[in-house]
Design goal:
CATH superfamily of the largest domain: P-loop containing nucleotide triphosphate hydrolases
Strand content: 15-25%
Number of domains: 2
Number of strands: 12
Low-confidence stretches: 1-9
Largest sheet: 8 strands, mixed
Structural class: alpha/beta
Radius of gyration: 21 Å
Distance between the termini: 59 Å
Mean pLDDT: 88
Length: 352
């Protein structure tokens, strides 16, 4: 049988608390800020979605949580608490004992994450053996076969012996999910788990993740570009841009009342089924180069609400309360809703 995580389902206590996380890039020229004072909680039994364009700092934030940052990046401040332990203060040895056990991650590309010369079953079995060394070889194999069955891989006994190249893309992603949940982690980080999969397989993968989470009582961080995926799967959402948290709230609150111009832009960029548009709305300009962020609000050069106002260019806005539990970082929060309505109306006007 699969081990139980010990959790009893959704609750009011955070499994993961990230507080003022700062990540710097270190080079011969000095240090550049990459992630700037990011904070959020993942509640027991819940799904926290992190969205934003490429280069916004989503994946780097979660690699810092895992203790897997590249050598040229450093955590320069903040705390990362998992079940009452600050992961940033642990030794490399203690962190290895947690990774793959209480904390696990599904990486973006399963083909590069799986070893091409070791069969899939053995690779999954290794992660079980590391955290359960007393388990016999036969019991370990039985658990791997059970995991392969759990994630929807047909004929798991035969597939156990096969190599990654003998699996389809969807099956490799399922194998990565099996590996990540092998020891019933308290927290599962899913980094773009449906990237490069067709729509049907995407839906299957998300259904598998939901089933596995329900069975093992695992909390999850879902890192994605796909706002639809977050709407269907997450309880809370954090919107990141330029290494900063722009908005944070329940999924229902953010979708009902987006309160940062960047969030509004992301939502308006989605295809609509209630109107025919000549062209999709797009956020002006390009995301900033990582580590070369503008002063003030990092989004102000692309912001349609800023319109060159000095406060946006000179002062970094703090996350402030919009409503209870709903935070946004904008100097002109009270103007966001009427501005968003004008943007939406203008898009509909162009469709006529």
């Amino acid at each position: 049988m699969l081990p139980d995580s010990g959790s009893t389902g959704p609750g009011s206590q955070p499994v993961l608390s990230v507080r003022d996380l700062v990540i710097d890039a270190v080079s011969d020229e000095g240090r550049e800020r990459i992630v700037d004072h990011v904070s959020f909680d993942v509640m027991a039994g819940s799904v926290f979605g992190i969205v934003g364009e490429s280069g916004s700092g989503k994946t780097l934030t979660m690699l810092a949580v895992m203790g897997l940052l590249p050598n040229n990046l450093r955590v320069a401040g903040g705390e990362v608490w998992l079940e009452g332990r600050n992961l940033l203060t642990l030794s490399a040895e203690d962190l290895r004992k947690i990774r793959g056990g209480r904390l696990a991650m599904i990486f973006q590309d399963p083909m590069t994450s799986l070893n091409p010369v070791i069969n899939v079953g053995k690779q999954i079995g290794e992660i079980i053996e590391i955290h359960n060394p007393s388990l016999s070889r036969g019991a370990r194999k039985d658990r791997v076969v059970e995991l392969l069955s759990l994630v929807g891989i047909p004929d798991p006994g035969r597939r156990y012996k096969q190599f990654p190249h003998e699996f389809s893309g969807g099956m490799r992603q399922r194998a990565m999910i099996a590996m990540a949940v092998a020891n019933a982690p308290t927290l599962l980080i899913a980094d773009e788990p449906t990237t490069a999969l067709d729509v049907t397989i995407q839906a299957q993968v998300m259904e598998i993740l939901a089933e596995v989470r329900e069975r093992t009582n695992t909390s999850m961080v879902l890192v994605t570009h796909d706002l639809g995926l977050v709407a269907e799967s997450a309880d809370e959402i954090g919107v990141m841009y330029g290494g900063r948290m722009m908005e944070r709230a329940s999924v229902a609150d953010v979708f009902a009342n987006p309160s940062h111009p960047y969030t509004v832009g992301l939502f308006n960029s989605l295809p609509r089924i209630d109107a025919e548009l000549d062209e999709l709305y797009s956020i002006a300009g390009q995301p900033p180069t990582v580590g070369a962020y503008p002063s003030g609000c990092v989004f102000h050069p692309r912001c349609g609400l800023s319109e060159g106002r000095p406060a946006c260019a000179s002062n970094e806005p703090a996350l402030v309360s919009v409503t209870q539990g709903h935070l946004a970082a904008c100097h002109f929060i009270e103007e966001v809703t009427p501005w968003a309505a004008r943007v939406a109306a203008a898009a509909l006007g162009r469709s006529k």
